[in-house]
Amino acid sequence: MTATHTLLVESLKLGYGDRTVIESLDLAVPPGRITAIVGANACGKSTLLRSMSRLLAPRHGHVLLDGREVHKMPAKELARTLGLLPQSPIAPEGITVADLIGRGRNPHQRLLSRWSREDDEAVAAALDATHTADLADRPVDELSGGQRQRVWIAMALAQQTDLLLLDEPTTFLDVSHQVEVLDLLTDLNRNRGTTIVMVLHDLNMAARYSDHLIALADGKLHAAGDPASVLTEDCVRAVFGLDSQVITDPTSGKPLMLPLGRHHVESSRMA
Amino acid sequence: MTTTPQAVVHNRVRRSRRRVLVIGVLAILVVAVYVVSLMVGETFYTLSEIWRVVLGETVPGASFTVGELRLPRATLAALAGFCFGIGGVTFQTMLRNPLASPDVIGITSGASAAAAFAIVVLGLTETGVSVFAIVAGLGVAIVVYTLSFRDGVAGTRLILIGIGIAAMLDSATAYVLSQAAQWDLQQAQRWLTGSLNGATWDETLQVALALLVLGPLLLGQARNLFMLQLGDDTAAALGVRLERTRIVVIVAAVGLLAFATAATGPIAFVAFLSGPIAARIIGSAGSLLVPSGLVGALLVLGADLIGQYAFDTRYPVGVVTGVLGAPYLVYLLIRTNRAGGSL
To answer: Does residue B281 belong to the interface with chain A, where contact is any CB pair within 8 Å?
Structure first.
């Protein structure tokens, strides 16, 4: 797989009903890298991701994949290049892990086509990559949150897209499972060159696991670039309205944000 | 350890064999109950007598009883049951909620009210009645969908609005029937709970044609419908065109339901029960459309046999299916309530 796809957002305006969520946004997703999008609640992160994967039509502007407008591309053709894992996908009652992962093959199948050898290979590879092979026959309802999230990612892997967008893939997971999921996505990026764009809640996880960090504030781009240059005390104040101290994470060398609340802070450090 | 595609193949083949087996068994059961309903009655006829009637020979007694009464009745039961089952599971799948069945959210009530109105007030017959039923069914589907639309359709809101509209339409049916003095109770039952009494070849043929035209249209969307179970966003991200799928599926399913309703009345709870029963026995490996249709056919055929011969009095088929369906509805409502109201 190659990572030569370009994904561009040009003067994009998005909204629901009377409400405008994103005013006018320009950004470029670096190919073959991991991009994390951060921002306060309701700043338009998920809306942006939905529009990038053609689930929400722009009010104005474009989302361009390799120079073509995603909203004008045939649905299945787009779904063979760009995958999206929404924030709360629904597992049908009683579905088994293997069946769920197999549904990721939909964009590769035609109306009357039989299940192909490539389909089986893709499902096997997805089971392996996500360490879910021994769960294959289990009903998804019975899995733990961390296992379930790995299964959903496996479904997105079975789709075999060069670009993968994920909306808060670590929400509701405890810290060890968060790390597991983010390590898995990093493997995917390093081994297959898959371009990853993910919305993350946790700033420090976003800074550690991304090559490119995008900070949104009130539907506008606040900053984008290398995490070390984006995640600054000023940025945290502007985006989240929070005073903080940003240090260098001794384990990763990436920036680490320490919030300064009203309590538990030594007086010399108060802003 | 790496998973070989062979392991995946093995697993998949095992489940698809099971699926084929279950569908086969269901089909055999439908045929068996169908044949039994041709044989039993006031007079018992043997298989060979029935076969001769089917071939067009004149068999004293059987030619009329089987050829003109039992055959159209059993055929209509199987076809209408199939339409109710497949139409019901389509709505339940699309709206991802077992309560969102067309007989709960007012679609069959609309078709039924319109059919009763067309017959009693306008004096229409056959095709005219079916057209009325379809227009009303589609109309109700559009009204319920539009009223519950606010940044997308929420299942719970749609179901509550649907239940309200169904209640309104059912009272409209009751009013129309009360204005028709010459109608007897048997006929009235048909439009209130559904009945196969007086089934004719003409009605049967209409339902068969509807199934022949709309069935393939619906089955063509089986895969998309199957993907919709994952939620709208996930399905769309996997290449499903949501709006187009919904329109095709709603038109085809409402058409099937309306034709069946125009012929038999709204046979209670068949649309509601068939999908969940099929899902229970077939699992998640594939589309539920055909299995639900077969379960629907089996339910109507079986319920009609019970209604006609199990008791001293003959009951219309809808009374029997109603007795089966009501407890399940109560069970679903209780379970929903315990789960904190999220359907």
So the answer is: no
Query: Based on the structure, what is the number of domains in chain B?
Result: 1
Q: What range does the domain containing B174 cover?
A: 78-338
Residue A55 per-residue DSSP state: S
Predicted model pTM = 0.86
Tell me the pLDDT tens digit for each residue of A176-230: 889 988 999 999 999 989 999 999 989 999 999 999 999 998 888 999 999 999 9
- Bridge-based pairing of strands A255-259 and A244-248 is antiparallel
> Is residue B220, in this structure, part of any structural domain at all?
yes
Question: Does residue B238 form part of some domain?
Answer: yes
B253 within some domain: yes
Tell me which residue in A90, A99, A133 faces B3 most closely, judged by beta carbons. Answer: A133
pLDDT tens profile B270-315: 999 999 889 888 876 778 899 999 999 999 999 999 998 888 888 8
* Interchain CB distance below 8 Å, A124 and B8: yes
Amino acid at B338: R
Cβ distance A83 to B15 less than 8 Å, yes or no, reads no
Residues B106, B169: contact at Cβ < 8 Å? yes
Report d(CA A45, CA A217) in Å as an integer.
9
The 8-class DSSP code of residue B69 comes to: I
Q: Which residue has the higher pLDDT, A248 or A43?
A: A248
Q: Would you say the ipTM is above 0.95?
A: no
Q: How far is B12 from chain A (nearest CA, A)?
A: 8
Residue B168 domain-assigned (yes or no): yes
CA distance B93 to chain A (A): 10
Could you tell me if B17 lies within 8 Å of chain A, comparing CB atoms?
Answer: no
Nearest-Cα distance to chain B for A86, in Å, is: 6
